[in-house]
Amino acid sequence: MKHAVRGLDHVVVMVDGIDAAEAMYAKLGFQVQPRGFHRKLGTANHLMIFDTDYFEILGIVEDTEFNAERREWLRGGGGLANVALATDGADLAFDAFKAGGLQPDGPLFFDRAVEIAGKTEHAQFRTVRIPKTHMPVVGFFVCEHLTPQFVYRSEWARHPNGARGILGVTVIAEQPARWAAELEKYFGKDAVRGEGGGIVADSGTQPIHYMNRQDYLRRYPGITPVRPVDHPALLSIKVENLAACEALLRRNGVKVLKPDSGRLLVPPSEAADLTVEFREN
Q1: Rg of the chain in Å (alpha carbons)
Q2: In sequence order, what E strands does 76-224 have?
Q3: Which pairs from 211-217 meet CB under 8 Å and 24+ separation?
Q4: pLDDT-based confidence at 78, cuts 50/70/90?
Q5: Residues 209-244 pLDDT 10s
């Protein structure tokens, strides 16, 4: 059976200054892929690839109609901007989202050049974007990979910090429950449940946690959110060995917080306005 949404595909971290952000993420111990350009969109990115998901740092290199909202968003600082959802087809997702009342834009095709074994290939995608009027704090969109072999490559998924994949996303929302009905339009009925004073949405793979600012500050002591309003705030990354990851970060001069024995926190100042949490599970 084919699914309009089948989990989290990747996370987009918007940065104001892609050169500095690239250096930051290399310092965090990621294998940062060479810069790619989306000519149609006026953006450039670097990917951190894992086995079945990834995250990207994305910067504006040319003003276009396709990145106007991103430019506006960047005026408030960078950080986690979007969660791209995996799909069995952009057309399928478009139809499902339209039926659910999300008013999606039609599927958009774009590509970017990638170098593989000395040869230039083109990674191709079709995305379905949802307008801001249906954005539950996070900017969700659907991403269909037409050429996954040019994105998910095992040699690109080996990171010095031992990173293996995305564990989840955390969103600051002063009234988490108000977003439950909207989230169910994306993920289905009963995909959202209460969690303490917040909620958690089951994407089909990784969870997306919503919590108010007070609970966030308790959960992540020492971290100051980059925005005073609701926003996606934190990306959790699975690592093979937390102690080895900590040693690498400290060796590289990265500021690291350790609220307990099972977590490392890298503050926004060290990761282009994103808080990164490293855990083994």
Answers
A1: 18
A2: 79-86, 108-116, 119-129, 139-145, 163-172, 192-195, 198-202, 207-211
A3: 211/170, 211/171, 211/172, 211/173, 211/176, 212/172, 212/173, 212/174, 212/175, 212/176, 213/172, 213/174, 216/170, 216/172
A4: confident
A5: 999 999 999 999 999 999 999 999 999 999 999 999
